[in-house]
């Protein structure tokens, strides 16, 4: 209910629209203000204007020129600075500077080293303007987005046959009709995704489609399924790839976990380099795999033709189960695992070059076409050669060995399969961050997933996926095979919701041929739902229950994140005009509340209006006149740091006093004498803390001051000693830090650190 | 050389005197200002006075009364507060408040729980005024300070005989003369410590005596030896105690490490409760042990008398080594390990009730007396009964079994021995924090060791010892026997230096009978040195080399700490009057430096004097007039938080401008439009960061501003969003924190956090 309610409120106007026309742009982190916010902003500006009587501080002369125009020749590094390079800034127009270089390469050699290593691994940073060039051409997109989908033909037909053979070798004849059904499913899903891409040209993933058509909870359910699946894809496919390597080179078996982490790190680095770079790295193996399997077909067909297309009868295998509908359905669902990567293109639509949807659609068509050819061809060849799953050898390997009894071809096919299985993880690295970007844009994921890294990739999402996959990989010791039953369920959950969403979409929007389109999507939804239910039921005990449990938990987490962001946005929203017509929310006397006791204001100002205290106090202090100051300076010892803090505080020209905390009366008296030696320029308050605690009494004292007159802004000026070396921090008690932490909880208390730097 | 030079300079007057008459007092953390510092303080005060023209801000009316006098009836907890309890403060005299309750017991139940547990374990906090009552009476001091010393008679005689028996059972006859020599050593060291306590009534530990008489390096050497020894005492004696328990109950052996940690935790808690409480806990076992051993003597003597004092001949044991001087020396040195706890009283003198030195001296006399009686008595009885070390049973156990063949007495003696061995660690818990207190007072240890906890114990030192001992205990898996050779060396290093220091002391101060006193101390020093050299040489390979290595390293660490504190004190010292006579360090125009380019000051003030820029810039900004302000407000989005920060910044009445960081030109233009909608009240500077980094360009920009005019104090006002729950922090990018960290390195840049609190 909560989400539905919130959704309705969002449509009221304060929230950004669900699908603004911007897509993958660095500005996504800065959503524009809504009209209501702009109105409120204007209103606050009017209050400010009235308060100041038309003398904006904007016109005051500053002690230096903030555009640095006069000073461009002076790259003077400070004595303590480690970033001082003014040349970094280029002045273009009045009031605007542009950063001309990457900012992370300065300071000492040791401090620069991590940044340099990063640059060496990831390449130079890319400017925001390059975002278009970083988008994908079709030839790059195909290998980047299809490795997951295409690699699955290496195990999809086998998974189907492995179920059928349970009913005896006689049942293997069913493989061709089931495969035909799967091809129908592939074509249906592919075609309906083509429709989806056209209908949602700014991103056509299940999350977006289901959110838009069926409501945010359906979208989040689809997203949760996909998130689980992406993480599993990475760890399982890396485990499978490493397994293939270690069965070839058994000496490497003890290094399974480090090898796997190395592969994940490689994928991480490759993807952090950005889409184009990742395409360059990952294109060759995918194309090699396609070529190798096509070669297998050609030779296999030639050999079959030489035999006059007479099929080899399979060896007799006894039945373990009776042949029933359940076995057929299970075989169908298992074979459908070949389709798990088909979603990749849909989420990545905005990452294509313009016209995005057209390029994406063509790419999808090609991918599905290749998938159908590979899948159908393999199934037919296996049937023709009478191969039976089982034993230590995969069907693909049996087929290759039988087709190429001699020569290097067999090894080539095996190697290409291994590499492409490893790279299947790469699809997840492309899709997962984009999915999180869309979720973060809607407030369902942390906002940091909106940030584009310095290579214009969504680095935070890429890193999150790598970390999650590595954790699972390490937790299972590199043997993640037990996670395979969890697979597929998440994807087909997403497919079903996406297709069902499209049906709803057509019903709402209609348009040309909408009935035909809706029927196509409905067929897809039905078939996907069939696979989903079959997979969830038959694999429930083996592990699918984890997904059934994890999906709602993830959805709940996303909703909680959204609720937090909603609460934050409400709290930070500007006050709407409360008195329509006047445009001022408060009477002309200014907002605020009087002191609790109603005592006369010692500053001689008129008492503030009572009714605006309490929950409305977030709405005051929005113009300079509304801020009433009291500056407090805690002083432990009258040294240079303390005197600077005192001078700073006094120089602000606001009411100020000092407070000293003492464990004993004698010490307090001694301090007061020193204070008088200094000249007693400021009022001094002493607190005796007989239990020798420092932070708690000070914080409590400030809180008491605040409670007395909540409308006064208390500024606590703390001298902060800055040391150069980390271990020197151990020699200081860091009162400043602890005090700041204790005061954080208090509204209306501003903490100011006046630093003093120790040499050496 | 460094330390000597610094010592000389310290005597020049800027440093606090090495041994002020205060001792263990909570005010030790606030050393009084020296005369030079007071003069400088007065001088700065005069500058301030002249700058303000006799209108001190002290007389300004504050918007509320900081003494809270009018508001005592209002314990209003804030919406976010967790410490709001105004009743805590009691107003006594004008300008002074006293904390009347412990500050840590407030907030929610969960937040209070740790504080409550602490209170339950440690008891209510003790006020500083109770420091005198927390001091020790003699009857409490004896068990608290002597458990280490007295428990060592359980193994001292055995250690001596174990060396002698290497030369065959015939050599065992030498045990009586060697024991006599050891008694002479004990009496000599005891007597000379009596003299030391009289001469250094404010603390007579080796560190203090050697520092004062032989220079700080000797003192630190002695301290390093003692520090190592205290840590070893705790882990070794806990290991020995647990060993005794597990040999009685072998089922507990797998729990050696947890049991040992439990014992260390118990010692920690007992000592954190304070001296008096620890005395109550630890007194009974020590007295029980003394009584048990005395009973053993009485019965043993009675039996011997019944035999007509005829000694039992020892069983024949073949010689492994020839009987030579080395064996005798080694036996002497091994027996001397009975003395390792004798230092305890000397460091603890100021913890006695007045008259401190007299009470301490009497306690020492008693301790040494009991030690001599127990040691000599045990050695004689062992000789009388013809007991030989070796086998699985300790000599004390053999003796007890022979003296009490039946009845519960044997078990009683064994139990008392076990408990007192465990408690031997307690002496270290008393002495170690006091030693660190003295070192911290001189700047050779972190200042936090000056702090008295809320039970008036030096909690930081107690915790440090427990942690160090526990680490060693865990690292050696509870089997710390291999550390025993490291023992003794450190203590006798300290003894030797202390006694030698006393000789130097008498030579300097003379006084009545100084030659006799010096001769006594010289004898003590000689004997201790003999033991030290013997122990170091004979145990070098077995482990003493660790001490030989660790002592200089520790001394170096202490010197480094002192250098850091010296540098800090110099950096924070107030500027001495630079122009004698006038009392003003700068011409009347005010200190400071002009901008680099010499451009005209846009504020219209006269240009500052050139010569005071550069290294002397720490000396300006000490009066309000000397502080020149420029306020910078980074704004990401025009929400409530940003507008409050802008209003706060503008309300200070100083020159102010805002800066916005944008990843793209489009976003920058959009932001400027919003700025104009608001009313364009402040000058806005935009920075385009095409590489999408935020913190580095902002920090670098501020640094560039600072480099342009270092004499301007830049105040960066950052809105800070405060969330209630820890996990919500993950949802925010915490720019404020990162920016603060990046700006910390810049001198003259003040960071102000304007908090805004999210509800829920």
UniProtKB/TrEMBL annotation, chains A, B:
UniProt name for this protein: APC family permease
Membrane topology annotation: Multi-pass membrane protein
Membrane spanning residue stretches: 162-189, 227-249, 255-275, 287-306, 364-388, 408-429, 456-478, 484-506, 518-537, 543-561
Region ranges (Disordered): 1-29, 576-619
Keywords: Membrane, Transmembrane, Transmembrane helix
UniProt biased composition (Basic and acidic residues): 1-12
Native organism taxonomy: Bacteria, Bacillati, Actinomycetota, Actinomycetes, Micromonosporales
Subcellular location: Membrane
Main location: membrane
